[in-house]
Amino acid sequence: MKELTIFIDNREIKVLEGTTILEAAKKAGIEVPTLCYYKDLNPTGNCGVCVVEVEGVDTFKRACITQVENNRKYNTNTRKVMDARKAVVELILSNHPNDCLKCIRNQNCELQTLAADLGIREFPFERFDKDMPIDKKGVIIRDSNKCIQCGRCIKACQDIQTVNAIDFVNRGYETKLGTFMDLPLNDTTCTNCGQCVAVCPVGALYERDDTSAVWAAINDPTKHVVVQEAPAVRVAIGEEFGMPEGTVSSGKMHTALRRMGFDRVFDTNFTADLTIMEEGTEVVNKIATAFKTGEIGKNLPVITSCSPGWIKFMETFFPNLREHISTAKSPQQMFGPLAKTYYAEQEKIDPKNIVSVSIMPCTAKKFEAARPEMNSSGYQDVDYVLTTREFGRMIKEAGIDFKNLPEEEADELMGFYTGAATIFGATGGVMEAALRTVWFVLTGKEMENYDIKLVRGMETGIKEGVVEIPLKEEIAKDLGIKVLPAKVAVAHGLSNARILLTKVAAQLKEKGQSEYHFIEIMACPGGCVGGGGQPYACEYAARARRAEGLYKEDKDITKVRASHNNPMITKIYKDFLEKPNSHKAHKLLHTKYVDRSDLV
Amino acid sequence: MSNYKVVVGMGSCGIAAGAHSVYKKIQDTAKDKPELGIILEETGCIGMCYREPLVEIEDLKSKKKYLYGGVDEKRWEKISAEHLIKGEPVKKWIVKSSEKDGTDEDIFKKQFRVVLSRTGHINPESIDEYLKTDGYKALKRVLKEMKREDVIDEIKKSGLRGRGGAGFPTGLKWEFASREKNDKKYIVCNADEGDPGAFMDRAVLEGDPHSVIEGMIIGAYAIGADEGYVYCRAEYPLAIKRLTMAIEQAEKMNFLGDKILQTEFSFHLKIKQGAGAFVCGEETALIASIEGKRGMPRIRPPFPAQKGLWKKPTNINNVETFANIAWIIYNGYEKYASMGTKNSKGTKVFSLSGKIKRTGLAEVPMGISLREIIFEIAGGILDDKKFKAIQVGGPSGGCIPEKLLDTPVDYDSLNATGAIMGSGGMVIMDENSCMVDVARYFLNFTQNESCGKCTFCRIGTKRMHEILSRITQGKGREGDIEKLEEIAHMVAESSLCGLGQTAPNPVLTTIKYFRDEYEAHIKEKRCPAGQCKELITLKIDKEKCIKCGICAKNCPVECIRGSKENPYEIIQEKCIKCGNCKTVCPTKAVIVE
Amino acid sequence: MTNDDRSALMEIVGKYKSQKGSLIPVLQNIQEYLGYISKESVEFVSEQLNYPESDIYGVVTFYAQFKLEKPGKHGIKVCQGTACHVIGADTVRDVIFKELNLKKYGTTEDMKFTVEEVACLGCCSLAPVIMIDGQVFGKLTMDKIKKILNSY
C-alpha cells in the first residue's frame, strides 16, 4: 500500500492509503469528536458529528467514512466546523427527551458527554418530543424516543450477530429503530445477547432493571438471600469505579456483596467447575459411544450450552442441532437449583425463603432464568439476575467505596473455585477448562501444561484444531484407538457461530458426521467478558484486557487449576449428587431445548 | 385506398384529457365510412399538453399535415364532416400545420428537437416507425465502424452533460466506467423522474422508447457492459408498458440479446420498477434499490463506476441523456456541439407547467433565456396576471424572480442564481403564488423524502419545515429568517448526498429574492399573495355580487349563503379558504383580505 | 392465508427467485395481487427468499408504494406535485375528503376508496390531477371531482 502525505490542522503526517481522516487525525494526536462511530463496527457516517473541512472541497466531509487523499489539507477545528458539529448535536437534542436526570444513562451517556464537550448551553431549536411507546415486554427495553438513529445497534445485531431482529424502519424524519411489524423485541428473533445495548450511546436500549426487587429481598427479614457472580464480572466491575479493564476484583466483589447485605456470598465459578464435571462426563461418554457404536454423527459433536444468547439463537436458527447441544445447564442455572436444595438442606433453611440472585455480564441470563424449564428445585431456580452494570449501580447506591475495599473469599460451600472455572468468562475458556478435565479422565494423568493457547484469544472468530489425547489403557482397549485426535472448535460472536454451525449442519446432512468432536460457542464477541451486561464502552481491545485478567487469576491467583481437583466439587458429589451424570444430577443440572424456528 | 392518416396523441396527458374516447370515435368513423380511407395511428406526447387531446390529420395525397387541438368527440364530428369529407380544414381548431397557419405556430419557433425529434410523430409501439426515422442506424454504425474509445471520444467532443441534474460530462463518465477492468459491468438508465413538476422523461419513454434503448446499447458497448437496467418509477405505467414492448421488439430484431447484429457484443436489458422514493434518483440509492434494499445513499468514493451494482462497475445516466446519444452519433458531434453555450452544449428538454398559458414540453438549444421560454414558448402568464417566479430544478432547485429572467438557460448561469438546471422541470408562478408557501411545500417534500440517514437532512429539514409552517400560519417570529438561513447552510454543507445538499435551495432562493414576503408574513402577519389560509379572509363584495349562486354551488364546505334576493356571503367560521368561490365568481366579487 | 393465496404467492416468488435483487419486484407483485403487503406475506417471503423479516419490513416501510393495510376497492392518488400545489392540490384533497367523508388520507368506512397522496404523477400540464386505479384525471374542478367519484 502507498504511503500518503497529508496535512491535518497544518500538521504534516504520513499514513497508508485507505486510512480514514478520523484514523489519520488520531495518529496526529487529534481527537475528532464522533457519535455514531464505534471502533468495532463498520462506520456508517450516519450522525455527521465528525465533519471536517477539506481544503478545495465545498462540503464538509465525515471523518469516519472518508479516506484521505494525498497532499490534501484537512481542518478539524475551524470555527465553521465547530459550529456545524454543534449544530448537529443541537438538532439531535431538539428531538431527544430532556430527562437526563432520571435516564438510565445519566453520566454515562455519549450524547450527554458530547453536548458538554461541545459547550452546548441552550436549545436553539424548538423542541419536539416524540411520543412512542416503550417496548418493555422482554429483558431488553427499547425506548425509540431516545434513539438518535446512529445505527450501531443494527450493525451489531445484523453484522456481528446475524440475528437481524432490528432494522431501520420508515423513512425521513419518521425513521426509527424497528422490528418486524413493530413487534416487541421479545417476540422476534432477538437472542437477548445485549450487544445492541452494549453499543447504544444513549438510553434507547437497556436491560430491565431488577435492582429494586433485589434491594427489597435483601431488606426483607423473612428472606435468605444468596448471591452468585459470573467469572467475567470480576474483571469488569472495577471499571465502574475507575479501575482499568481486567483488574481482578474477585475479593472486593465478595466484600461488597457482603456489605450490601446478602446473606451468603457464593460464586458462579463453583458451578462452573460443576459444569465441567457434568459436561465433561457427557463429552467423554458421547465420544465413547460414538467410537464404540460407530454412530459418530449421532453423538458428536457435543456443543457447549453455557451461553443463553447462543442457546436461543440455536433454538431459533438451528433447531435441528438441538440433540448436539450439551444437556448440562449453564453454571448460573446449576447454581440455582443447588442453592434451593443442597444448600438449603445443609443449612436447614426452607427453600421457599431463599432468594437466589445472580450477577452476570449478560442480558440473556435474565431470559434464561425465566425459562419455564428452569425450576428443578420446585421453585424458580434463580430469582433475580443483575448485570454487571446493575451491580455497579447498587454498590454506588449503597455508598460502598469499592476501590478501597479489603478482599474477602466467597463462602466456601458453593464459593470455592478453580482457575478452570474463572476462564469460563473468555472465549475458549469453557473448552480449555473442559479439556483439562477430559484429558485427566481419558489419560489418567494431569496435563503437563494447563495453558491451551490454541483456543485462546479473540482475534480469530473461529478457532479450531486437534488435541491429541493419549488414552489410558482400559479406555484405549475399549475404543480400539490409542490416541484420540480430538477435533475442537471455538466460535465467539453469533456471526461466527452461524458460519461454524452452517458447516456442521451441512457435514451432518451430507456425510452423516461432522469433523468436530467438541465445540464451544459463546454469543458475544470475546465471550462473556464482552457480554451485553458489562460496563459500557467495551470495545474489543477492552474485552481482551478483561480476558487477560481472567487468565491471570487462573494462573497466578487460584490455588487449583482443574475442576476435578476442586475439593468442594468432590464434597458435593459425595454428600449430595453421587456422581457426575447421576440420576439426581440429571434432574437438577441438565435441561432440554425447544424449537423456536417460528420466530424466523 | 388510403386518403388520410389520423394520429392521436396518446401520452399520459392526452389520455387523461380524453384521447381514448376520441380515438374510439375516430375508429368508428373509419369503420362507418370506409370510403374516407382513414389510417388510424397513435403517437406519444406532442408537447402541447394544454391543447390535449391532439389529433393530427395528414392528407396522404398532398402530404399536408394539420394538428387539431382540444379534440373531443363533438369536435371530431365536425372535423370529420368538414375536413375529411368536404376537404375543408377547420381552421379555428388547427394549432399547427404544414402550412404554418395554425393558431399556436410560434410555440415551436424557438425549439430545436433532438430528444423529442420523434416524440409525438411516430407510433411509439412500433419499431418499424422508429427504424423508418433512422432508428438504430447509429447503433449499426457504432458496431460496424467504431471502437469503444471512438464512441467515448465522440460523446466527449459533443459536450453532452448529464441531463439528470448535476450535469457531469457524459463522455467522461463513460470513460471512467470503461477504464475499469472487470468481467462484469452494468449500465443503468435512471428513469425515476422524481422531481415534482418534471415530466420530460415520461414523455420520452412514452413517445420514443427505442431512442433510450439505442442510447443504452451504445453506452453499454462503450463501457463494456453486457447487462443493463432501466429503473423506472411505478407511477408511470404507460411508460413501463411501452418500454417493455420496445425491449421485446428490439430483442426480436437482435438489437438486444446475444451477439448483437452478428458481432461479438451482447447486451441484455431489464426493467426494474421503482417503489416510490425520491432519493432513489441519487445514484448510490438507486443501486441499493435495484439490489432490493432500502434506498439509502452511501459515501462516494468508491464511485459507481468503480463499485456499483452488486459491487461491479456501473454507469448510470438518465433518460434524456441516453435519448441524445444516437442522435449525436448519427448526426455527428459537431452538429450537436454547435448548439448551446460554451460549457453547455446541445439542447435541453423542459417541462412547462404552472400559471402559464401553454403547458407542455419544450426542447430548446442551451443558452436561450428564461424570458423567451416563459413568454414566447409558453405564451406568458395565465389570465395575463403578473409573473412572479419560475421554479427550476425541482426540490433541489430554486425560484428565480422577474429581474433575472434574462438569465440564459445553461448549467453555470442557472447555478449562479442559486437554482440548478436539475432535470428540467419548470413551474411558473404568478402574483397569487406565495413564495413562503412554495418554500414550505418543497421542504415538506424533502423532509418526507429524506432517507433518514443523516442528522442534518433528517432533522434539519424537519426543523426548517416547522419554521416555514409557522411563518405561513402567521406565527413567525423575529429571527426566523436568520435561523432558516443558518440551518440551510448547515444542511447544504454537511449532508452526505445530493438530496440533502440541495434541499435548502428553495428556501435560500426565496429568501434571497423574496425576503419582503417573508417579512410581511412574520412582521405584519400578512400574506401578500393571498394564499396562506391562516392569514387571509375571503369576503364577497355585496356591490359586485350578481346573486348568481355559482360560488355557493362550488363551495366544498357549503359555507356560502344567499339567494336570488340577498347577496351571497361567506360564513367565516366554516370557511376553509380554498378560494374556489374566488376562482368561479364571474364578476370577481370575492375578495381576499 | 388461504391456499389460493399461498399458491399465487408461490408463483410470484418462483418467477423472481432466481433473479438478483428480487425482493422489491416480489413485494410489488404481491401487493398487486393482495392489494397490500400482509404480515403473513412478509413471513412467506422471508421463508422463501431467506431474507430476515425485519429487513423486509425495513424495505416495505421505506418505499411509499407499499401499503401494510388492506386498501379500499379503488385507489385514489392525489398528486402533490409542484404544479398541482400551485394550482390547488389542497383544495382537490379537501373536496375529495368532504365527498368521501374522510378526515385524513386513508380508507373510507365502506372500503370503497383509499385516498393517498403521491409526490407527482408527471401530468403537470393538466394540474391539478388525481389518479384513480391507474387512470389520470386532470384539470379538476369541484364539479368534475364529484362527477368522477360518482362514476365509481
From TrEMBL, chain C:
Keywords: 2Fe-2S, Iron, Iron-sulfur, Metal-binding. [2Fe-2S] cluster binds at residues 79, 84, 120, 124. One of its GO terms (molecular function) is metal ion binding. Coiled coil: none annotated. Gene3D superfamilies: Glutaredoxin, NADH-quinone oxidoreductase subunit E. It holds the Pfam family 2Fe-2S_thioredx. It comes from the Bacteria. Binds 1 [2Fe-2S] cluster. Belongs to the complex I 24 kDa subunit family. The keyword Metal-binding applies. This is NADH-quinone oxidoreductase subunit NuoE. The keyword Iron-sulfur applies.
